[in-house]
Amino acid sequence: MKVLKKLADIWKHFETILMVVLFVIAFITIVLQIVTRYVFNSPFKWTDELASLMQPVMAFVTLCYGLRTNTHTRVNVLSKKFPLRVNNVINFIAYILFAYFCVKMVIVSIPFIKIQWYVLLGTMPKLMHGYFYIAFPICFTIAAIYTAMAAFDEVRKFAKKPEIFNIKPQEGWR
Hints:
Strand content: under 5%
Distance between the termini: 28 Å
Helix content: over 70%
Largest sheet: none
Shape: elongated
């Protein structure tokens, strides 16, 4: 489990930088599209394609961030009505199901990436679709790791032992 925690710590720093860089690139790309389209009446064709391909990459990176900081929206109205130990079991089952989904997404996305890897972008011929779609298996693998960490902590809570990974909202949240 210490290996998972070390990987999560490494990813945490990279993830934060990556989210900022992706947001800045997307923002600049969209502003450039707006200016060239409405001010100069001659839009760059590549800005629309780049912004469209960056959107799922940003979504999957922020999926990892939301899991790490435990800031994703969860529907837990029903489970809160149960005693704490039953709530731990429900959370554990939910984590296992989501981890299964993440692993399945990794397995499904790899053949898709193999097909798309050498497909050139229409407006930026030096870039390939695979460069963007590689985020799918990477982010879902990280999401599975975070989910496994949270599931492990649920088991420890059920056994009334201290959490190891302690996936909780960051300071300043909620």
